[in-house]
């Protein structure tokens, strides 16, 4: 005999009791299993999505990654697809928004030391890619005219766009503001009084390509059109909200270039963007290109934007200064404000060093971790503070806080450490290497073992896997100041010849201005076009 169907109302009651238990127990796995069984037997699609979503919210609210996160966001996508098929565009947009907010919540990807997205980029995003609603939002709407060739009879008009984060734009805007072949304008979407209120609101940005929000679309078109009509090329910093917003309208004959750092790969923005309106995407690291294209494989399609790998624009020569006399035993950790920096790993290294020689100390530069965003952040912050309270009184650790003179601070650092679990390129590490500090780089777990990883971004001998290997490398290369200084000089040579702005700026000229345009500056330093490990690659390789 067929098993009798338990009423949805009873299943929902049992499931919600399980959800309530999730909030009260330190061992939530049984409750999660009960919830899963109940939710899978619920026949009503909307109720099933609500139950799974409530349970996911309960776990996320505890700072935990839900075991059923993919099922939860997938159930909401199923609702979106049903609504879209019924012509309910607004409701479909709301469900897709809810699914994205669940899938890319900061707890699983930002506030913990591993991420289901980095563990399996293609698997984690598979349900999103199979959703009819998500596909419709990101479907190519194209442009009426192809991008025009750079003008031959006047300077190229370059518009540089960001939204409240121009941290890595200084050298680029300075160069093109003073370049005879360029007329430069900058646009901060968050600061522009007309664009700021338009460049926000995920749900309406989703609903627009589904055929809704006509008034919003007209307002975006009217506000962006003068900027697009003026520019020959638009360079959008960060492949996030600003880039998605810019692609809501047809750019006409204006070429659009987007630069992706790291953060964006752990957000929903690349998944809802219309890449048919982007001509080039710049990655600052090969491993970020690899992870992003695995999660968003349409970037590898024949009609996708051209993909490039160019190093970040960094002024590293100002860090090349003589070391202070006491730098040999000072290990520097620059940038500690994110859990991904994992400063607790650095403390493990420090304990191993001081077990053999108490002259070693750790200098932590930058603002601390904010415990407020989530319980996961709060838990890491509390554990870190407990460890620091044990180490600081002896002078083993010194927290400097934010500094306006990092170059001056690094003059007192003999070893520069990267303890991170993930990075795009780790600017603080590169600055330390340029200063002549000995680099010690953890094999970033988010990308370790992949074709492109920490070991392909940096020289192999810089990279370690465990705190013990890090301590051994430090002991070996600080055996004397002469040994340390020689290793530091070699690191500085590599950093300056590979990542300094004077080395990489021609690549940006080539990308943004075109090969047929005059470049009036002197040639880049030696090594700028070498084929060795670490050098940038501007080819269009999709594989």
Structure, explained:
The chain is of the alpha/beta class and about 550 residues long. Helices cover about 45% and strands about 10% of the residues. It has helices spanning about 10-20, 30-40, 45-60, 70-85, 90-105, 105-110, 115-120, 120-125, 125-130, 130-140, 170-175, 200-205, 215-230, 240-245, 270, 285-295, 345-355, 375-390, 405-410, 425-435, 455, 465-475, 480-500, 500-515, and strands spanning about 155-160, 180-190, 235, 255-260, 280-285, 305-310, 330-335, 360-365, 395-400, 415-420, 440, 465. A six-stranded parallel beta sheet has the order 2-1-3-4-5-6, sandwiched between helices. It has a six-stranded parallel beta sheet with strand order 9-8-7-10-11-12, sandwiched between helices. Helix 4 runs antiparallel to helix 5 (about 90-105). The longest helix has 19 residues, at about 480-500. The termini are far apart.
Distance between the termini: 53 Å
Low-confidence stretches: 515-543
Structural class: alpha/beta
User: What is the radius of gyration?
Assistant: 25 Å
What level of helicity do the residues show? 40-55%
Widest sheet: strand order? 2-1-3-4-5-6
How would you state the average pLDDT, rounded? 91
> How many helices in DSSP terms?
24
Indicate the proportion of strand residues: 5-15%
- Major sheet summary line: 6 strands, parallel
Annotation, overall tally of beta strands: 12
Based on CA inertia axes, which overall geometry fits?
flat
Keywords:
single chain, flat, disordered C terminus, 543 residues, 24 helices, alpha/beta, six-stranded parallel sheet
